[in-house]
Fold each of these.
Amino acid sequence: MAEFKDRQGYPLAPANGRARSDEEANAAHERELKKKKRMKYLMYGIAFVVFQTIVIVIFALTIMKVKTPKFRVRSGNFQNSGNTTTLDISLNGQFRVKNTNFGTYKYDSSSVTFLYRGTPVGSSVIPKSKAKLLSTKKIDFIVQLSSTSNSELSNDISSGSVPLTTTSRLNGKVTLMFIMKKKKSTNMNCTMDLVLASGQLQNIKC
């Protein structure tokens, strides 16, 4: 009996010890979850910044990059006058201004000079206009080609092919996003042949 009484004299271990351990474990778990969420949001943020940077770089290298438009002779035809010593031809043809920019190219009026072996033989006026974004502006023209007689020209006419060159320069501006304007000039330097038998411009190279 004395031994039983002695056992009753010792207090029982506190019941809230395990509860405290569970609370600490839950708190640690919540902290871990919050840390994982923060890392997740951080990774999303970094991915978004990288994506935006790539988009901006692509935008700057493609859409916002201003390229020089191309100014060329496209085609031409004429009626052969049958003259064997001088050049006296009315040439009907077409120029083109190819604009590969993501913005309109507005250019000022200009002129195209036609030359036979370095000597001007005709000129055509280019009116002020514009080439829309990613498009080609076609310009019809009529020019009277004439030159005095010389032995070299007579030989070319006899061969059936008269070499010509064209030179010109267009000055204008490319407008991007309706707000940004950048000056751009384009030169024309083309060679071609007046083929008398077919009445056409052939071997056009620009």
Amino acid sequence: MKFSTVVFFAAAAAASVFAAPTLQARGVDPALVPEFGVQRGAGPDGTGNCVGLGGKLIPCSCPPDRGEFIASLNANVAAGHAINNPGIGVSFPTGQSKADQQARIVALLVTLQNIQGPGKGCPAVSTVYGQLQQQINALP
């Protein structure tokens, strides 16, 4: 009886180790990432420039692919800083306070502007994020 009890517990312990779920880092909730609000490649002028917000010229490669952007944002948030510009801290709180919203919009802009390297990304006018930042900053 003792032998079968020991075998049962040993088997149960081994099974629980192999059946344990793996922990994965949670990514940013895409629902908290606003759409860019600008169409990539709109109004090309033939020299690599396209039209962003307010008619301002932006690279035709901007804004980036949303999936690529969210992947880069996830990497930045997980690292606590911009991967391509480590001197810039990044956080992405999920609350709705003014401070949380400001931190999220900063994370979005930092990711956007450094997505290809330090200062090598898309300008704020290639999205509505700058406008959203102004609206958030104007909140009481």
